[in-house]
Predict the structure.
Amino acid sequence: MKKALLILELALIALFSASCQKPRRIEPAKEQLQYDKPLPPGQLALRKITNPADIPDFTFACYDLSNLRDAIANSLNYLKKPSSKQYYPYGDITHEQAVNSLKAFDDLLKSKTTAAQLNEAIRQKFDVYISVGCDDRGTVLFTGYYTPIFDGSLTKTERFKYPLYKQPSDLVKGPKGEILGRKANTGVSPYPARGEIESSNMLAGTELIWLGDPFEVYIAHVQGSAKIRLPNGKLTGVGYTASNGQEYKSLSKAMVEQGKIDGKQMSLSAMIDYFKKNPNDVSNYTKMNPRFVFFEIEKGEPRGSLNEEVTPYRSIATDKTIFPPACLAFISTKLPFEKGGTISDRPYTGFTLDQDTGGAIRAAGRCDIYMGQGDKAGTLAGRTYQEGRLYYLFVK
């Protein structure tokens, strides 16, 4: 996350096409949309809605506002930082308006009005913008990501021998944290891809923590964060600090095409089961994804790319090169829910905060929803693969 790297991988892990940092079902049989289609030069990802009939009904989302004020507080904390001003103005939205929008919405939440009254107040007080999506008609693909929990050790042992690495000293970043490459005598060159990094042992001496399974290492890379249960039972967090700057590529498509896992059965659980039975295949597939992630010890709850805590179902990851960070958003899609041991998809609307990004989350047609920590969150994240609409709210 930093994290949300997401992301997709573990959700069908793949967009069947495929931040930091994504069980998905494969694309339905219909005309394939290019969800990561870039915007035309100069076009903004958000378009102001001018017809009141096109503004969504917020009523149902107003019945469950749990944790929303906490998530708003995290966004406001980020916007207090001078560095946040570099992303504004966003179109006609100023930094001050972004702050005032969150404060105004928080004031509405404190008023404790009914859901219907809150819906009406939002429509009166806020302008609503919609993501143009991948097709300029608002279509956005929603996927999910989560924080896995693995066993591990701060020192290498016979059991724990697969490392997560710290950021290397030769990695060069730009003023906004973008990855420029690797420091060299002649300047800066592209940082090596995953396959070269792992086969050359070039990062020896920069190990941060050790896990007991090589595919768990890969999952941490894709999700961008993890909780590690140490031998004494304590949990420590690790979070994204940088990557090698390479583009994320999914490996699940290759596994399906090569008959390793049936397409209808593709899921994170299926991949974990396969690699436990075939551990020698892990590197053959993971090296297909050239992106490699570096970590740091993370105190407290998992954090997003804004370096603020992310909140289950309240934090989303988008492409921060085209969306305004920390702002209030509203999503309308379908999400999986578990009841009585059965998972089913149902319509979902909810208020969220744009607090994260990911290696696989690119363009106006992509959004990742943070689902929480642990196996259950991972199962739900892996099942999340639905089209929908993404809106942003700014006080008038």
About this structure: Residues 147-298 form a domain with the Ribosomal Protein L25; Chain P fold (CATH 2.40.240.50). Residues 1-30 have pLDDT under 50 and may be disordered. The chain has nine helices and 17 strands. The two ends are 31 Å apart (CA to CA).
